[in-house]
Write a structure and sequence with these properties.
The protein has 17 helices and 2 strands. It is mainly alpha-helical. The chain has one domain: Farnesyl Diphosphate Synthase, CATH 1.10.600. It has a two-stranded antiparallel ribbon. A hairpin with a 2-residue loop joins strand 1 and strand 2. Helix 4 crosses helix 9, helix 5 packs antiparallel against helix 7 and helix 8 runs antiparallel to helix 9. The radius of gyration is 20 Å and the shape is globular. The two termini are about 20 Å apart.
Length: about 325
């Protein structure tokens, strides 16, 4: 494990060097419209993106598989861009569904340009994914990454059903986060291997590494949802206010009697400030966050173990640091 004080995304991305500049140019060209107004919307998205974890995973995995002398090809840049576009389109549509006016502390596309334009922008980005893939003739790349669009949609619908019925179980929870979050990180790593024409077994191994990383990533998010707002900069228990039962509460249920679980679910259904405060206290008292943290660490341990199959390199070190980065983040 790397020294946590030194684990930053900048250090993780360091082996990519000038490839990041090439990637930024590639992505900006992909997010472009001849319409000045529409291009302003796309530029707004480009300038207000997140941390870029997923495209970084694509490029790092490609380097891991290809070796120290690897120079990132157009296939790798295309793969990274397609992954980021899928993620971006899903976030734009999510903000419409959730009626969210903010993202990363700034106005969302929904909040800045309106619901109608947000839906059309998400659709435009999805269309660019297929257009770029077809124009490049890299049909294996396009076919591979497109699977995750289906899984993202399935995950959202399954979660919506569980939210309405409050019937969440551990099995259903893992299925949802596998589809909603882990699938895209898994595909990011798998397509990185595919982009450098790694053998099928290596593509599958990269996918499993990314899946374990993605499961841990979402569990960490769900733990942080119960953290204090002054730590995360987000409202405490935002998911719970939407009646979403996640791993910290499921782990709390595991320590309760059936009667206590039923009473707590009634509080979830209420969803008011008083009910949320009571639930959060129960999670704290039953060590729900700590129990969820132990589950997260098991997924991270599997991810770290997978990397030991590869020779030491800057790429491997960065992927190991990515595991540390996800485990230590506070927001």
């Amino acid at each position: 494990m790397a020294d946590n004080k030194q684990v930053t995304l900048e250090r993780i991305k360091a082996p990519l060097g000038k490839t990041m500049e090439e990637y930024e140019l590639f992505l900006r060209q992909a997010l472009h419209s001849e319409s000045r107004y529409f291009d302003d919307i796309l530029k707004y998205i480009f300038d207000n993106r997140g941390k870029g974890v997923r495209p970084t995973l694509v490029m790092l995995t490609a380097g891991l598989m290809a070796g120290k002398e690897h120079k990132h090809s157009q296939r790798v840049l295309l793969s990274a861009a397609l992954i980021e576009l899928i993620h971006t389109a899903s976030l734009v549509h999510d903000d419409v569904i959730d009626r969210a006016d903010l993202r990363h502390g700034k106005a969302s596309i929904n909040g800045q340009f309106g619901k109608r334009n947000a839906i059309l922008t998400g659709d435009f980005i999805l269309s660019r994914i297929f257009e770029l893939g077809m124009e490049s003739l890299e049909f294996d790349i396009l076919t591979y990454v497109s699977h995750t669009i289906k899984w993202l949609c399935e995950g959202e619908v399954i979660q919506d059903e569980q939210t309405k019925t409050l019937g969440m179980t551990h099995e259903k929870y893992y299925d949802i986060i596998d589809k909603k979050t882990a699938s895209l990180l898994a595909i990011s790593c798998g397509v990185g291997a595919l982009a450098v024409k790694a053998p099928a077994r290596e593509v599958d191994a990269a996918y499993e590494f990314g899946r374990n990383l993605g499961m841990a990533f979402q569990i960490k998010d769900d733990i942080l949802d119960y953290a204090a707002a002054d730590q995360t900069g987000k409202p405490t228990c935002a998911d719970l206010r939407e009646h979403k039962i996640t791993l910290p509460l499921l782990e709390t249920f595991a320590t309760m009697t059936p009667e206590e679980v039923a009473a707590t679910k009634e509080l979830v259904a209420r969803g008011d400030d008083e009910a949320i405060a009571i639930i959060r206290t129960k999670v704290m008292e039953h060590n729900g966050m700590e129990r969820a943290e132990r589950v997260m660490e098991k997924f991270l341990a599997s991810a770290r173990a997978a990397l030991t199959a590869y020779p030491e390199s800057d790429y491997r070190e960065s992927l190991e640091m990515m595991c540390d980065f996800l485990a230590m983040r506070k927001k």
